[in-house]
Design goal:
- Helix content is about 55%, strand content about 5%.
- The protein is built from 6 helices and 2 strands; from the N terminus they run ααββαααα.
- The chain has a two-stranded antiparallel sheet.
């Protein structure tokens, strides 16, 4: 009987700690090269494990599949992986900063809501512009509370007009 070389998709999945379906998906999404087929079975070279590690690291860093595809194959082959990473990271960092700002706004709004004692929505300082801060934000948090209320009001206007959510609201 002929001995086959290369790793099966199950072996790759086990070693990479991924599901076999994820490997097949990455292949169909263009993140992995098509493997050699032996009697219809996928056979991968061991270098696939490094490529899968790069994909998983890039996912952890917040890169989309399209960005990962660019990282892996969208640059000149002469460009080093570290230079590729720097190019994409410089583009990604502002997105991450915006996400952090949004999360901080969400947290402030949730914390203010925890202190809410309003009996009617119409009286809530989080919802009504210009109303007294009924939730007692400190002097130093007043500007952020005001900004948070502006974000809420912008979202409300967008909803009423049927427009898309404003950029700061996910």
């Amino acid at each position: 009987m002929k001995q086959y070389t290369g790793l099966t998709v199950s072996q790759v999945a086990r070693q990479a700690r991924l599901r076999a379906s994820a490997i097949r998906y990455y292949e169909s999404a263009g993140l992995l090269p098509a493997p050699v087929r032996v009697s219809g079975w996928r056979r991968y070279d061991t270098t696939i494990l490094v490529r899968l590690a790069v994909i998983e690291l890039a996912k952890l860093a917040g890169f989309t599949l399209a960005e990962i595809r660019t990282l892996l194959g969208g640059f000149s082959p002469r460009m080093s992986p570290s230079k590729r990473w720097r190019v994409l990271a410089r583009q990604k960092i502002p997105e991450v900063e915006a996400l952090i700002a949004r999360a901080q706004t969400m947290k402030r709004l949730l914390e203010e809501g925890l202190n809410c004692g309003c009996l009617r929505l119409e009286d809530c300082a989080l919802l009504v512009p210009g109303s007294a801060p009924a939730h007692g934000p400190s002097a130093e948090s007043a500007p952020s509370a005001s900004r948070d209320r502006a974000v809420v009001l912008e979202a409300q206007r967008a909803r009423r007009s049927g427009a898309r959510r404003p950029s700061g609201i996910g």
